[in-house]
Amino acid sequence: MDTAVEMDTAVFSRWIGEVVTAVHAGREWLTRLDTAIGDADHGANLDRGFEAVSRALADGPPGSPGALLGLVGSTLIRKVGGASGPLYGTAFREAGKVLGDAPEVSLADLAKALEAGLAGVQRLGAAVEGDKTMVDALAPAVRALARAVREGGGRPEALGAAASAARAGAEATIPMQARRGRASYLGPRSVGHEDPGAASTALILTALCAAAASPGGPAGDAGPEGTE
Ligand code: ADP
Ligand code: MG
What is the mean predicted confidence (pLDDT) over 149-164? Predict the structure, then answer.
């Protein structure tokens, strides 16, 4: 069963590359969401952050998935001014710590890493599900991935389930009233809009699904890195 198939640094590099592209392409959309219930900078914040990540990785990725996620996290903390910078930065750093310096990680390791990322976001931002934040997308995704791992699902299915859960979680923020972050200042007027951070979380997890499910991994791979 291919949950046992390991993911190497190339898979994680591909993930972050997909995020850079998706955030850039989604910049206007994320900003539009943040215009409705925030200060219209979420797209610009993340685009600036992931542009910096892209530059940091340009000289070649670090030697392990964990080190790569650590570098993504610290770059986001340094470069993103809004609330989302420290929150996403912490998520990536905590996830990276769980992966340590192993050159390859399993789907179960990744599930544990994302769980630690979520815990980091909640420790820092104190949001729970229902507060209309990125937690509303990340928490269901973490649960979906853990369930898929427990049930022995394959990597594409497991990551597909996580991405779908994140998107559904982001959509579920529409009727919520914000209780954390800038949108909470609007009180009942925050109802009726999708949370920008939940939307970007869904985008990041969709990118993970695309990167890790695409050819390039060892299974059925005709690519250059499929030697071991
Ligand atoms: P800012 O709100 O400082 O302008 P951004 O616009 O970049 O920062 O990010 C806003 C997003 O950050 C929100 O949509 C929400 O998902 C997330 N967010 C804000 N505060 C919190 C918090 N305490 N916990 C979790 N997520 C939060
Ligand atoms: Mg904002």
Answer: 95
For residue 53, the Cα-to-chain-centroid distance in whole angstroms is: 14
Mean pLDDT within 189-193: 98
Ligand 1 proximity of 42 Cβ (cutoff 6 Å): yes
**In whole angstroms, what is the distance from residue 59 CA to residue 183 CA?**
38
Contacts of 101 (CB under 8 A, 6+ apart): 63, 64, 66, 67
Q: What is the pLDDT of residue 226?
A: 36
Say yes or no to pLDDT of 3 above 80: no
Give the model confidence (pLDDT) of 27-77 as tens digits. Answer: 999 999 999 999 999 999 999 999 999 999 998 889 999 999 999 999 999
What is the residue with the minimal CA distance to atom 7 of ligand 1?
Answer: 42
CATH of domain 7-213: 1.25.40.340
- Does 158 sit in the ligand 1 pocket, CB within 6 Å? no
| Residues in contact with 92: Cβ distance below 8 Å, sequence separation at least 6, in sequence order | 69, 70, 72, 73, 76, 117
On whether the CB atoms of residues 57 and 15 are closer than 8 A, the answer is: no
Which residue is listed with tokens 């790569």?
Answer: 68
Q: For the chain, what are the domain ranges?
A: 7-213
Going from the Cα of 31 to the center of ligand 2, the distance in angstroms, rounded, reads 8
